[in-house]
Amino acid sequence: MRRRFVTLFVGVAALGGGLLTAPGTAAAEAGPETMAALPAETVATFKLATQDADWTAASQAVKAVEDTGAVTKVTPLAVATSRQHVGRAGLCHATGIETKLTPDGFCWDKTDDVTNNYDTVTGGWMPQGLTASHDSVPGGTVEGKHLYAVSWHYGKGGSKNEFARVSIADNLGGTAPSYGHVLLVVPSGTGASGTFTPVKNTHADGMVWYGNRLFVANGGELQVYDMRHLWRVTNLSGEIGVDAATKTSSARWHQWAMPMIGRYDIPGANIGGGCTPGQGTEICLSSLSLDRSSSPDALVSAEHVTWLSSVKGARGRVARWPLNADVALPKADDGSGIGTTTASAAYTSPVWAMQGIATDGTYYYTSGTCPDSWWVPGGPPVQDPASYNCIHRGRAKEAPHVLTRSPRLTQNLSYAPNSGRLWGVNESMYLAPGETQRTGDRVVFSVKLP
Asked: What is the pLDDT of residues 193-210, one digit of tens each?
């Protein structure tokens, strides 16, 4: 087996050539693989396909639900500042991030720090995607606030994808953040029959807030929601939907719900995340981020290939999808507002177990396996608090190198042009050595890019 990285580049100085040999390995002369561009004929097969009829039906269903009077439209700021949940200011757990990158961020409350899908009694939630108001608008704020959104999937006893939610947080900077949870739902019905059901079979892998739209990646599909249709429900109960007789609504213990307004499919992939990464025209949508550095704006997606598949030579792919800012949707090939979109560029990534992707217009930043991770002889085991992930940095068509370690099981990344900071979220929920019950080490973090 050829190791992809055997030397570790740390911090800003390392990008100039300073080397630190990874534990349990020896320095090698050969450099890492490059982020290679895929041929144009291959890129041309990568499509986001959709149908106007689906959007029309969803629009009618959303109106039907709102016409019942059982839900009230609210703003993202109202959810974020509700103080339904109050987190903890700063990075309350060890992150492994280089201090010279001035790490910052916030933590969830203690319940959301430890909730997990391994719980066999109540089940629980696992965080995945990350986006923020710096994606929504170039100015970086919504109603004068820096807001952050994280997607989660729910499972029980090891199951996954039974429900999906989005947390919208007001990062107050130096004080405890306020946030609320929003259940993702599918609207249905017309006229007086409007109701909704939960979005099922959704891993909520990645997320981008673009204009009023909220894109959620789910393997073989891109789901679209609209922040202008955030609903406050009337009842905090385990039911989901509208009770037409009483004109009340519930969202499975959530105060808020948000309906899907449309979706795009990856041709050949199965709805519900059934997508094989790294193969053929089924380019999977795992992590998502936004790039405003070129025209038109672009949605950037990446595939997650497990570390074992990476060892065997499989490589995740990164794709760029042009956006139409006028309608805040993927740019249709035929010039219409809603239609099939072809990727504008794509690459293979040498980063093992790639989880997150973002770009500042010059470099791509990728979260994935560290060169001295647990699979390397002498590296710490995955459940060890010292088993961090790494953020890799490199230009397209060049070899990436490690910028810094990052929190264990780092997921999605998001670049904030207004501050020059890279944001990330992790899902980690392992038993550390000596622990008898799970204690969380989840953070929403940021670093100042060199």
From this structure: 999 999 999 999 999 999
